[in-house]
Amino acid sequence: MSMTHTTELPRTAAVIGTGTIGASWTVLFLGAGLQVRASDPAPGAEAHLRAFVAEAWSSMEQLGHTAGRTLDAAQQALTVHASVEEAAQGADFVQENAPERLDIKRQVYAGLESVLGSDVIIASSTSGIMPSTLQEGMQHPERLVVGHPFNPPHLIPLVEVVPGKQTSEATVQAVLALYRALGKTPIRLRREVVGHIANRLQAAIWREAVYLAREGVASVEDIDLAVSAGPGQRWSIMGPSMIFNLAGGLGGMEHFLEHLGPALETWWADLGSPHLDADTRRMLVEAFGTPDPARFTQAVEHRDRALLRRLQALDADQHDTGATPAA
Amino acid sequence: MSMTHTTELPRTAAVIGTGTIGASWTVLFLGAGLQVRASDPAPGAEAHLRAFVAEAWSSMEQLGHTAGRTLDAAQQALTVHASVEEAAQGADFVQENAPERLDIKRQVYAGLESVLGSDVIIASSTSGIMPSTLQEGMQHPERLVVGHPFNPPHLIPLVEVVPGKQTSEATVQAVLALYRALGKTPIRLRREVVGHIANRLQAAIWREAVYLAREGVASVEDIDLAVSAGPGQRWSIMGPSMIFNLAGGLGGMEHFLEHLGPALETWWADLGSPHLDADTRRMLVEAFGTPDPARFTQAVEHRDRALLRRLQALDADQHDTGATPAA
Lengths: 327, 327
Hints:
Strand order of the largest sheet of chain A: 3-2-1-4-5-6-7-8
Largest sheet of chain A: 8 strands, mixed
Strand content of chain A: 5-15%
Distance between the termini of chain A: 15 Å
Helix content of chain A: 40-55%
Structural class of chain A: alpha/beta
Oligomer: homodimer
């Protein structure tokens, strides 16, 4: 999470679209000392954005990611503009968070390209549209890349970098370096796939969780605990393959596969494929009930404090001596 | 992780089988102030067990789970016996960790039942054999229950409690209370299924991870990062269903399903079903290489320090004010 590659940082980022994701990127960029030029056509967008920055700033302070800025200084480094074209003036990086509609995104790119120098990278936060589709018809398609964060991007380290067919290798390398300089953990996809990677992995575990609940094996609450009180503790430290590699002891992955490969294949064969039909939806909704506003706010605050503890633990891991398991 | 239900604790636990899992249970029981009577036919078993206790004790000290005992006092509270029958003398709880072979486990149960009072619970750590199968032919099958830990049980909170067809409700309730009194997070399965729950969820996520690596979407290392730098941070706090419920905002799970249900079904339909064939195994082995002993030791120590940080964060979450997301 340390910001050692500051030479890779742009000075001015344009943030197009300031809903939940765009607002969180804004906080991240402000915390790294950048100027941010934002634009969003929604009524009251600037007030919402500045309120989000104010709310999130204490997290950035606790993580030491403010570039020495006070909240006031951060708000001053943020300007909000009436159009995409105006926000793009002088930007040397763009993070686009427009609605997930191809026509809207293409219109945004046309506006951006009418203003930006040809070497300015446009990263899209899209989770649902392939970069090869996004970049069709652009003047400089080689500068378009997906930089898909895991919400909220000002806190969660992961960014999935997905080049389209026309994206240049220089763009990929520059955006990887830029996200690293922002303290993020970017990964590089070598092929475009539906859902990128993290959402597919989330979908995979939730599919089995829903199946087990639907089959009456345990309550939704207990299945959640089977993650958070069990393998979830390890997954905040390293990924599933490294966990199994270390479980193989000095024999590594080879020993693990010999010893537990057959059991894993047995479990794979038995996993379920539920659908979100009416009964399944009803079961899930009933498991949680209708949120009570006061309890919901408490739960979200509790979750966010817990997440800060994990990010601080992650920071401590990275400053720990010895080999990094994830490396 | 606090031990508030001390009235539910047995005074003397028998630990049958002291390999990795049995040794870790031994540490947990010693850290809760129990007497432990252990037995394992392997040559050198006592020396290995005592070395494991010595090694693990500092973790228990850091977590405050020593019941005021020094390591010396813990070693004195542990006795190692030549037979199952001898270890069972005076035990008021048994945790069985014999090899995953039905004939061996049935022989162990016969030995235990020749000594134990009829109301003493026998919990099996089995991951692969159904409790209904284990309890066939027992004198008191109602006392047999699966208490499957997530390795290592002295650190990871989860214990999966699985009753067989003949297990009494009193046994289930007593063993749930006992594990809670030990500071664990037990969950109750209402049906026996292959792999219980946590291993199935691990298998589900790893299946997609292996598929994506096999398809060349990203490196094994980057797919691991897509977990540990992304959703893994949240999974150490709460399970996947609660995450989605909170993501639904004040509309809760119902709003989440309306908004993201279609995307999840699209991803579910696209998830892969790889096999651990020769090429896949080679890919996985090559991703990690043959472990170097010095680096392996460093990596394991790093992992274990990182896990302690997560358990301390989990403890802080539970003492945090406000609603518990997992509750």
